[in-house]
Design goal:
Largest sheet: none
Helix content: over 70%
Structural class: mainly alpha
Number of helices: 4
Distance between the termini: 21 Å
Number of strands: 0
Oligomer: single chain
Shape: elongated
Number of domains: 1
Strand content: under 5%
Mean pLDDT: 84
Length: about 70
């Protein structure tokens, strides 16, 4: 059971990292002007991406992990 818990923790961490990178890439694609219109600056991208990754519901991560392991 310990190995299963470690496996779930690792997959959850990887899923959160993917969410972080996706959000980061999307925000970095905006121009400085577009970011400004949204009320952000380039310096805010890291914090926004971190919050995005932290806000991923645990149930969604577990559902996605079950799909991946079923394949």
């Amino acid at each position: 059971m310990q190995i299963e818990k470690i496996s779930i923790a690792l997959r959850t961490a990887f899923a959160r990292r993917r969410q972080y990178r996706q959000t980061q890439r999307e925000l970095e694609a905006y121009s400085d002007r577009e970011l400004g219109e949204l009320g952000f600056s380039r310096a805010d991208i890291h914090d926004i991406a971190m919050r995005s990754a932290a806000d991923v519901p645990q149930e969604a991560l577990q559902r996605r992990l079950r799909l991946v392991t079923a394949i």
